[in-house]
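hey m, so remember when u said the tokens were messed up on ur end? i reran from scratch. heres the input so u can diff it against urs
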Amino acid sequence: MILPGTGFIEISLSVIREWLKTDDIRICDTEILRPLDLTGGETREIVTRISAISQTFEIFSRPRLSNATLVLHCRGKFFHGARIAPPVLNWPKMGEAINRDQHYRVAAACGLHYQHGFAEVERLLIHNREQVSVLLTEKAGTSKYLLDPMRLDCCAQGIVALFPQLKAEERGVAYVPVRVDEIVRWCSTPFHIAL
């Protein structure tokens, strides 16, 4: 069991938002270098380091209440202000449609068994064999997160739609995103995410 990579995105957004004192932020070139393994059940402390000079962030962990060396899990860059206009979010009309059952069947065949809050994909649409739009199930209420890691993980599951053309199922392999090009947050408007 590992911390979803999207958990690192939420940590970085929340820390940077608090440090910059604004909701208008952008993170870029985010790389997950090493997963945070939680299999042993040990409590870990997480340390986020921000550099104002290089405008970078790093997320580390180590066993709680220890003097162990910090392990680097994630790093990226951040900026104040979105600098680009919010996109118009419309569900595309053209593309190869994939329904919920097809999506989770392919994921399970490749060893990815999504459950509970990680199983909220309603449908997907593949454009040009390399771009995927993901529609999630509606969720009532408000989230305590700036960007809910479970719902963001469901968005990242769009990569599963590309597994058949990568012959992932036949080869018995799965792919998970380890890099996010850009996440932009505008005040009172949706996020823009480029994986």
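this time it looks ok to me. The chain has two domains: 5-86+185-194, 96-175. if urs says something different then somethings off w ur setup not the seq
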